Amino acid sequence: MKKKLESELISIAHRILKLKGREDVIKMHAEATVLLEKLTVLKFAYENTDGELPSMSDQGAFYGMIDSAFNDKISDNREIDDRLFINLDEKEDDGIMEPAIEKIKNMVAFMPDIVQDSAPELDNIIPKPQYHKNDLEDLTADYKNMPIFDPVPKEQNGTVNDKKSLNDKLKNGGLSIGLNDKLAFIKHLFEGNGADYDRVISQINTIGSFSEAKQFIESMVKPDHNGWANKEEYETRFMEIIEGKFN
């Protein structure tokens, strides 16, 4: 049996030496596990058979050796390889354990209350957090009595410019005609001629009064576009927008 185990150990060692690379780590671990098991069996056999191992054919003797080592109840002390093993029955265990337990209980009973005594010292070492009131009303209390100033209009060239409404700006800046109205006017009043429409609007923006603009349309614009015949609805809308520019 000894030669058989030694041969298996050498074979496993050779297999481990041949393994290389990370891909063989799992296999190496498995081989090392088998190697450890074989060494454990060989060591156990040496320690419990005084160096004489039963043969592999005599399996009954080998397993009997293992059963005897683990299951036999001994009443006397045994010395193996300069090591002394003492057999203790249940009564002796109780005799040894009870005094030790009683001693520990006595030690705990006389221990000072460290936690309660150290509490005041911890309060002195670790300062308590101080909380500060963070109220928005308290922080802004000084701003409640701030004076209210009226806005001062800007002056340009010694005169004060009042704010102008959007309509005033549109009146001074020229005609403001929406996209839908513009497309309708070009189609029905200017016969689809967008350039002619733009020329007329530019001319009206240079005129200073509605009466002048109306005269310009009657004498110069309508004759060039069939007098806007049957276009009364679009003409009325067009004239209202022009009149709004001067009002």
Beta-strand residue percentage? under 5%
Give the distance, in angstroms, between the N- and C-terminal Cα atoms: 125 Å
Total strand segments: 4
**Continuous helix count:** 11
Uncertain spans, ≥5 residues at pLDDT below 50?
158-164
* Overall pLDDT confidence: 70
**What is the CA-based Rg, rounded?**
57 Å
Helix content, binned percent: 55-70%
Order of helices and strands: HHHEEHHHEEHHHHH
Note the main sheet: 2 strands, antiparallel
Principal-axis shape: elongated
Q: Structural class, judged by helices and strands?
A: mainly alpha
Overview of the structural elements:
Among the domains are: 2-85, no CATH class; 165-246, no CATH class. Helices cover 60% and strands 4% of the residues. It is built from eleven helices and four strands. It has helices spanning 2-18, 25-48, 59-71, 90-109, 114-125, 136-139, 166-173, 179-188, 194-205, 210-221, 232-246, and strands spanning 78-80, 83-85, 155-156, 159-160. The strands form two sheets. A two-stranded antiparallel sheet has the order 1-2. A two-stranded antiparallel ribbon has the order 3-4. It starts with a helix and ends with a helix. Mean pLDDT is 70; it is low at 158-164.
Helices and strands in order:
Elements: H1 2-18, H2 25-48, H3 59-71, E1 78-80, E2 83-85, H4 90-109, H5 114-125, H6 136-139, E3 155-156, E4 159-160, H7 166-173, H8 179-188, H9 194-205, H10 210-221, H11 232-246
Antiparallel strand pairs: 1-2, 3-4
